[in-house]
Amino acid sequence: MPEQITSRSAAEAADAADPLASIRSRFSLPDAVIYLDGNSLGALPTNVPAALADAVTRQWGTDLVTSWNRNDWWTLPRRVGDRIGALVGAAGGQVVCGDSTSVQLFQALAAAVKLRPERTALLTDGANFPTDQYVADSVGATFGRTVRRVSPADVSFDDEVGVVAFSVVDYRTGELWDVAELTQRAHDAGALIVWDLSHAVGALPVELDSVGADLAVGCSYKYLNGGPGAPAWIYVANRHQAALDLPLTGWHGHADPFSLDSGYRPSAGIEQARIGTPPVLSMLALEAALDVWAGVDLRAVRAKSLALSDLVIGYADAHLPDVEVVTPREHSRRASQVALRIPHAYAVTQALIARGVIGDFRAPDMLRLGCTPLYLSFVQTWDAMEQLRAVLAEGAWRNPAFARGADAVT
């Protein structure tokens, strides 16, 4: 990857040398749009529309209920789970796909709590995405655990802590936590750790097996490009599967689902993490979307991600004196987005969108720019920063159409 890019011509040279440049052709994106919000919703892979059309017209429309066998609908959760597992360093049989991230997080936290019944405290990051905190509170209330909120940077353990629930990446700032170190520290204290990989999977290498992770969850509509509402996934390390006691038990997770027993007996292995009928159409779209990873080296993805975010940070330092870079500058502490603190950030974000540069806003004052290496170029990133500079210099954000509520400029 290139040295610090300080001109558009240098960005053009970086694109010419980019080993991932050809992957952009696997995505459908409007020509006039610079898309910097793949950390919220990934772009549409070009093969997904045809896969969905086939799922609707042939598999559902023609093959009807026989598709559960004829088109292998029944094996989808495990099949897609193993493909996601390959992207997070998990050997087969430890990941299953289905349901939402919230459901999977509840499952993982509840199962972890039950694996440490003698421990009374559950730790979570007070800056975690709200759902992560809400679910932690729900699990705490359901199973009689005290929920403590603490940053991964300040975490300490005592013999009351049974479960730790952290995100690999801070969703606001893009700060990347040390998964291996925190996992080891939790284990040294006799605790289990549950990781949320929603902002990590597909953006950077994660090695769940090699770091000794216990459980993990993640969404699939960000860097995996599975589409809005795409099903989430859960990872359970092999060593915990025999003792697993999941709170949500549906017939797809039964040891013999078609016996239609009135009592529940969990399936062996990761199949017990299935619950009810999966969202087949969404999962087929995700399965097709995962094809974009064919031949892609996650190390190259990581290198380009860092180079793109270096460009954003370097440009802000050089040309945007009123903008504060919130995201850590150290590569080891940075994921695949850059957060910029800007006065009137909401209006600035809307002004950029009006110019075809799509980022997103996080209260109270942050513009987030997602650096998605599979389809974002260096020139696009440079041009986006030029547009941000123009919006600020021209005061384009003052347009009342870009304000909301108390942010309105009079």
Hey, roughly how much beta strand do the residues contain? 5-15%
Helix content: 25-40%
Biggest pleated sheet: 7 strands, mixed
Mean pLDDT across all residues, rounded?
96
Give the end-to-end Cα distance, rounded to a whole number of Å.
Answer: 46 Å
DSSP, total strands: 15
Q: Shape, please?
A: globular
Structural class by secondary-structure content: alpha/beta
How do the strands line up in the largest sheet? Answer: 4-10-9-8-7-5-6
Task: Write a structural description.
This protein has 410 residues and is α/β, with parallel strands linked by helices. It is built from 13 helices and 15 strands. Strands 4-10-9-8-7-5-6 form a seven-stranded mixed beta sheet, sandwiched between helices. A hairpin with a 3-residue loop joins strand 14 and strand 15. Helix 4 (76-87) packs parallel to helix 10 and helix 11 (298-319) packs parallel to helix 13. The radius of gyration is 22 Å and the shape is globular.
What's the SSE blueprint?
Blueprint (H helix, E strand, L loop, with lengths): L7 H9 L10 E2 L5 E2 L8 E2 L2 H13 L6 H4 L5 H12 L7 E3 L3 H15 L5 E4 L5 H14 L2 E4 L11 E7 L11 H10 L3 E5 L11 H4 L3 E4 L14 E4 L1 H4 L38 H10 L8 H22 L4 E2 L11 E5 L3 H10 L2 E2 L1 E3 L3 E5 L7 H17 L16
Parallel strand pairs: 2-13, 5-6, 5-7, 7-8, 8-9
Antiparallel strand pairs: 1-3, 4-10, 9-10, 11-12, 12-15, 14-15
